[in-house]
Amino acid sequence: MAIKKKEEECPKAPAWLTSFGDLMSLLLTFFILLYSMSIISLEKFYQVLKGLIEAFGGKQVIFSEGGALKASRIPIQFENMHMRVKKFAELKKEITKIKEELLSMGIEADYLVTGTCMKLRVNTNRLYPLGSEEPYPQAKELFLNMCSRLKPFSLPITFEGYTDNMPISNPRFPSNWELSAMRAVSVLRLFITCGYPQELLSAVGYGEHHPIAPNDTPANRERNRRIEFCIKLNP
């Protein structure tokens, strides 16, 4: 006896409809995500804004309303905004002028920005007698002139002394460490003489370490004998 197949109650949906349904679900999820991202948490916005201003050197954020943000238009006072924002271009311009003047005198010089420090790199071959920490008289005048031009910025400065790898050993300087440190200190003392705030000045000696050229030729060793003015952009 032949068996009769049971008739299907409803026909199967076409295959494309399954893919279409998945696409609609994904689109719905996407628009829900966009909507959730468009809602700004004012509390978190306040924390991010405060962090950014302090990172740029601002001392504080003053709102007309206390606590967290309660409105989208609240004036913020930026009178204590950091030098890096207000005076960076002026400082760079002055450093560039100093560099060009040094080059015109035959003194190798350059500047670079590393992190929060703008460095003025000055070769010491024409500024110090070989093996001495006492600069030439004309070099003293040069350092004093640089001090008078950098003093209006009132930024912390670290003087970094460097030498080549030629060993030195005498009663005054047992190694290049002492010589490089004393050269840095000699510039620091000149800046104090011209009235630069002492609390903003420091000196360090690196000796023959951190060379900018291989110590394999007399010319390269001359390049490594230098003083670097690390002008800190974040007081």
Write structural notes for this entry.
With about 240 residues, the chain is an alpha+beta fold. The chain folds into 2 domains: about 40-80, no CATH class; about 85-230, OmpA-like domain (60s Ribosomal Protein L30, Chain: A, 2-Layer Sandwich), CATH 3.30.1330.60. It contains 7 helices and 5 strands; from the N terminus they run H-H-H-H-E-E-H-E-H-E-H-E. A 5-stranded mixed sheet has the order 1-2-5-3-4. Helix 5 packs across helix 6. It starts with 14 loop residues before the first helix and ends with a strand. The model is unreliable at about 65-75 (pLDDT under 50).
Give a quick precis of the structure.
This protein has helices spanning 15-38, 42-55, 83-86, 88-104, 137-150, 176-193, 218-224, and strands at residues 109-114, 117-123, 157-162, 201-205, 226-232. By secondary structure, the chain is of the alpha+beta class. The longest helix has 24 residues, at 15-38.
Global morphology: elongated
Number of strands: 5
Q: Please identify the top-level CATH class of the largest domain.
A: Alpha Beta
Strand content: 5-15%
- Cα distance spanning the termini: 100 Å
Report the biggest beta sheet as strand number plus sense, adding barrel if it closes: 5 strands, mixed
The rounded Rg comes to: 33 Å
Task: Detail the topology: elements first, then pairings.
Layout: H1 15-38, H2 42-55, H3 83-86, H4 88-104, E1 109-114, E2 117-123, H5 137-150, E3 157-162, H6 176-193, E4 201-205, H7 218-224, E5 226-232
Parallel strand pairs: 3-4
Antiparallel strand pairs: 1-2, 2-5, 3-5
Helix pairs in contact: 5-6
